[in-house]
Design goal:
The protein is mainly alpha-helical and 414 residues long. It is built from 19 helices and no strands.
């Protein structure tokens, strides 16, 4: 049965993409966007590479909006019904297209997954979300192709081949690793990408190719970005309210779910309540960054968009707030500051562990976040910053260790 909200959901994604493009056009001329986009496409983009610092606000949001629109069109061409995982994947593209994914480097992983589907004699649509999430490894393509230490005669085919091969092996590995954390890490592909990235980077290092660390982090744009984000998320809530017969009915129901994979709020509670939940999540995440005196830029807006997108697929205020609290407590007792770049990202992307708070309670969510904020700072070395979902990798490790311990020792009746 065709949902009456199916067209509305596609329209929502298209308008969201358009808002990114229009926002970018407010800050740069077409010529400036073109020049900035060339910089984004050709410069290494290992963690952390803020595209705003590479190509400017205009080019960064243009890259994000166009790529988001293309992937939305891809879902449409595959005749897929938009649900929670669809929205999460599209918002992930939008967010990471501000710091690591671009109009060039994402396609090789997509091609690899496509080839895998053909080898398995399956429809590509069966694996499309693995392909979209799998663009976490896109920076490895850019790193190799535009490397200054390898001849272009070698780097171009090598970068393409590695990107395609990662996409080819990603579906079976990600499916298997889901069993390791039992769905308590919402970024399962990030976990798989971390494992795959560790292997590939280890092989590359064995042949003398060392990924060059980068740190590009912009500051000073909090006012304009906060206006855009608060306006955007308020519109989500208003539109959801209107589509929901001018009510907040079923929104509270979403907070009763743990968020453990697979928790598709669009299927379980409908699109309008989910849209309201997404807007609320976005306001909470944006406010957190501002309250701790953090910077709104490509990476942090990417984290906020990810929280918003997964507001359709596992995250809600009740299970993400304990993660923020845990990272905050950790910063008080540890050697870093709460508004250090890596810790800001640990708080935002650490909400991958939200299902732990949702399933076992706020206390365990806080504990998970405290542990995660330490682990995530030490696993990036393994994949050389070439897995954009570094927090997903860390969250998989934390969940794999912590969840069995919680289940073994917690009292069923507490």
């Amino acid at each position: 049965m065709k949902s009456k909200f199916m067209d509305a959901k596609y329209l929502f994604l298209i308008l969201f993409s358009a808002s990114l493009i229009v926002f970018g056009l407010l800050f740069a001329t077409p010529i400036e966007i073109y020049k900035g986009t060339i910089q984004i496409l050709t410069q290494p983009d290992t963690l952390i590479t803020d595209y705003i610092g590479v190509g400017g606000i205009g080019a960064s949001f243009f890259n994000s909006g166009v790529l988001t629109l293309i992937f939305t069109f891809l879902l449409y061409k595959l005749k897929l019904k938009i649900n929670g995982i669809s929205i999460a994947s599209i918002f992930l593209i939008a967010g990471f297209s501000l710091f690591g994914k671009n109009l060039f480097n994402v396609w090789f992983v997509i091609i690899g997954v496509f080839i895998y589907s053909k080898v398995q004699k399956d429809k590509f649509s069966k694996y499309i979300y693995i392909a979209i999430f799998g663009t976490a490894m896109a920076p490895i393509v850019t790193e190799i192709i535009f490397s200054t230490t390898i001849s272009k005669l070698i780097s171009i085919p090598l970068g393409m081949a590695i990107g395609i091969s990662i996409g080819f092996i990603l579906p079976p590995i990600s499916s298997f690793l889901l069993n390791v954390h039992q769905g308590f890490n919402l970024y399962n592909i990030g976990f798989a990408s971390g494992v795959i990235g560790t292997i590939f980077v280890s092989l590359l290092k064995s042949y003398g190719f060392i990924p060059v660390p980068r740190f590009i982090w912009t500051e000073g744009n909090n006012e304009i970005f906060s206006i855009y984000l608060y306006l955007l998320f308020s519109l989500f809530i208003i539109c959801g309210f209107l589509l929901n017969n001018k009510s907040f009915k079923n929104v509270k129901n979403i907070t009763h779910y743990s968020g453990r994979l697979i928790s598709d709020f669009v299927i379980m509670e409908g699109f309008p309540p989910t849209l309201i939940n997404m807007g609320i999540n976005g306001i909470i995440a944006t406010t957190y960054i501002l309250l701790v005196n953090g910077d709104l830029n490509g990476p942090t807006i990417g984290g906020i968009f990810t929280i918003v997108g997964f507001g359709a697929f596992g995250k809600h205020p009740k299970n993400i707030i304990p993660i923020f609290i845990g990272v905050l407590i950790g910063s008080v007792t540890k050697i870093w500051n709460i508004n250090d770049p890596s810790i800001l990202l640990a708080a935002l992307f650490g909400t991958a562990l939200a299902p732990i708070a949702g399933e076992f309670g706020w206390f365990y969510g806080i504990i998970a976040a405290i542990i995660h904020s330490s682990v995530v700072l030490n696993v990036g070395y393994l994949h050389g910053g070439l897995n954009l979902y570094n927090n997903g990798f860390s969250a998989g490790i934390v969940a794999a260790v912590l969840v069995p311990l919680i289940e073994a020792f917690r009292k069923d009746d507490f």
